[in-house]
Amino acid sequence: METVIKTTSLTKQYHGKNVVSELDLSVPSGSIYGFLGPNGAGKSTTMKMILGLTKPTAGNISVLGKPVNQQNRIALLKNTGSLIESPAYYGHLTGRENLALIASLKQVPPEQIDDVLRIVHLDNQQEKKVSHYSLGMKQRLGLAAALLGYPKLLLLDEPTNGLDPAGIQEMRKLICSLPARYGMTVFVSSHLLAEIDQMATHVGIIDNGALIFQNELSVLHEHSRARMKLLTTDNAAASSLLKQAGLPVVLDRGGLIYLNSRKPEVILRAGRLLYESEIGILRLEEEQKSLEDIFLSLVGRSI
Amino acid sequence: MNTAVQQNTKKLRRPAAVEFQKGRRLHLFLIPFGFFMVILLWSVYASKDPSDYEKAQGYAYLFFEMPLLNCMTMPLMIAVLASRLCDMEIKGQTLKLLYTLQEKGSFYDWKYLHEAFYLLLFCLGEGLIFPLCGRLFGFTETLSIILVIRHVAVAFIAGTVVLTLQHILSLCSGNQILPLVAGLAGSFLGLFSMFFPHEIARLILWGYFGAFVPYSMNYDEAARLLSFSPAAFPVGEFAGFCIFGVAFYLVCRSVFLRREV
Q1: Of B27, B132, B129, nearest to B81 (Cα)?
Q2: What percent of chain A has pLDDT over 70?
Q3: What structural domains does chain A harbor?
Q4: Contacts A97 to B, Cβ<8 Å
Q5: Closest residue of A to B96, CA-based?
Q6: What is the pLDDT of residues B139-179, one digit of tens each?
Q7: What are the tens digits of pLDDT across the range B22-70?
Q8: Distance from the B195 Cα atom to the nearest Cα atom in chain A, whole angstroms
Q9: pLDDT at residue number A167
């Protein structure tokens, strides 16, 4: 699959401290790439570097198959749309006038303004001054501006920030429809795991500036394999017994035993060992590891 | 060849047109117009009911007085202009979007030229005050068009150098209070620099509005009469100021280009 964004050892330092370190991103064409990480992980800085707004300390960036440099940056970005951090707008102008400015700079026909206004459902509010827009409307206007010219690549930095639940759902639906409707690749960042889970086809997880996971979302889901939760008459003794027998067992802080396997032979062996040691099994149940748990195990803290 | 020229013209016209589109509904013309009216009313008031003696040197008086007025008013007007035009980018956080659509340098230059356009309108308006007052009060002195052009040019060039400072201050300040205070302080400093020794006065940027006055004033205490005599134009000093202005612009521009959004 063709790669739309590729970074190699991308690094950004501020005051000698790595904000982004050795990032090797690979965003396949036609995907919705969810860029996930806690606040301050380096998501916005990475996106700014991809757009040439911030100069990398080290590393290379390729966008749409071409290495980005100061000479070709603007030409390359003609095929991209972006919404970074918060929507950019001129409050004293109407929504339509704002888009007309962007259309002029992007050199796209003004007729497209009507189309993008319709796509983001702002066609009824287009003559209103943007300073009178709600945050959700401003966010949609920002997305409309990014969509002008129907770019091949869309970079959206936390696009649902500040939206109400209905707005979040609407924005999510819209983003999900873009690759199929317009053949776009969407690179979307978020600090919300559930959001990425509902939108993305591919996911990259960044923490403290380093990429700790990158693959298809389905691969991440594969990590969420089930395990067996075990409650016995003496959990501590049971845990040490099973561990000694070489079974994949974890005793959590709450005193519960987790058997990290669903293989019948492993479960049978564990049962037999406990029986032989006269430790009673009170409960044995299957537990699916949530994406939240996987993230927790990857970054070492919740998101 | 023609197509290449047309394309280049289009390329240049686009950011200029966008800059002017951004200024819609801001009533930016009111800023130079308001300050122009202050200068006009002051000049009319100062020239009213002239005696024959005053009519004979009416223009010389205006050429002497107007640069002093510019020292007081233009720094503030320039600060307001720059602030009004740059604040829309700061408030709307538009830089991160604009830099994906146009070069940083292009944005910086066109914004500056947009501000300079209103400055030019003001200076041209000032040039009209001379014939206006002359006709209104019947000055008998001959109006030197060369001096009018020189006045407009000096006011505009001194204005563009001050604008360079206000431009970068306004673009780099999250809050426009600082650039406006700088403009206000410049108005005072510019005026006070008239009373400083020449060497010190030349160190004050805002004082240059009054540095190239084409007349010097003499006061005959016995007769209690003001008279004006032509002063030589300090070509070297003016050229030095212009070179400084260009260098100052380039330095400020490079500082701005290095800033990340």
Answers
A1: B27
A2: 95
A3: 3-222 (3.40.50.300), 226-288 (3.30.70)
A4: 21, 24
A5: A53
A6: 999 999 999 999 999 999 999 999 999 999 999 999 999 99
A7: 999 999 999 999 999 999 999 999 988 899 999 999 999 999 999 999 9
A8: 43
A9: 84
Residue contact B103–A52, C-beta within 8 A:
no
> How wide is the angle at C-alpha A48 spanned by C-alphas A145 and A55, nearest 5°?
135
Q: Are residues B163 and B112 in contact, defined by beta-carbon separation less than 8 angstroms?
A: yes
In terms of Cβ atoms closer than 10 Å to its own Cβ (0-12, 13-18, 19+), residue A111 is exposed
Residue A230's identity, in one-letter code, is L
**Whether A107 contacts chain B with CB within 8 A:** yes
Could you give the count of Cα atoms lying within 13 Å of A63 in the half-sphere of its Cβ?
27
For the entire predicted model, the pTM comes to 0.85
- From chain B, the residues in CB contact with A92 under 8 A are 24-26, 88
Helix (H) / strand (E) containing A17: strand A17-23
Is residue B72 predicted with pLDDT exceeding 90? yes
Sequence ranges of the domains in chain B: 27-258
Helices (H), B92-144: 95-98, 104-137
Give chain A positions within 8 Å (CB) of B260: 48, 53-55
Q: What whole-number distance in Å separates Cα of residue B105 and Cα of residue B97?
A: 14
DSSP reduced 3-state for A137: helix
d(CA B122, CA B74): 9
Task: Locate A300 and state its tokens.
Answer: 């070492």
Tens digits of per-residue pLDDT, A79-97? Answer: 999 999 889 999 999 999 9
The pLDDT value recorded for residue B28 is 96
State chain B's mean pLDDT as an integer. 93
